[in-house]
Amino acid sequence: MNTRKKIIFLVASAIFVLLFTVIIFSKNGYMAFHRLKQEELAWINENKKIEAENLKLYHKIERLKHDPEYIENVARQELGMTGKDEIIIKFKNKKNGK
Q: Cβ(30)–Cβ(24) under 8 Å?
């Protein structure tokens, strides 16, 4: 190769390396694209979790509207309520002196 062809090759190679670097590391380059894809996947997973939670809450609401046994169970477990003609007996704890 003569000197002129070597200079053209070196300039073309330098331009190629520069453009490649810009494409990969610029503000809107491949690295930014890759980061945005990862964020998108994280948001998609978060949305799936929220949808599953919403579905569970929907089913719980439907049971609270239409299932008397479930309503009674919730009232007993979460609210500490008793049924008709039931008596609550509390014992003193001898270890604590109460």
A: yes
CA distance readout (Å), 39 to 12, 31, 32, 36: 36, 12, 11, 5
Give per-residue burial for 39-51: e unless 16+ CB within 10 Å, then b: eeeeeeeeeeeee
Tell me the C-alpha distance between 54 and 59, whole Å: 9
Q: What is the Cα–Cα distance from 44 to 52, expressed in whole angstroms?
A: 12
pLDDT > 60? residue 60: yes
Number of residues assigned to the chain: 98
pTM of the model: 0.56
Yes or no: say if 27 and 34 are a contact pair by the CB < 8 Å rule: no
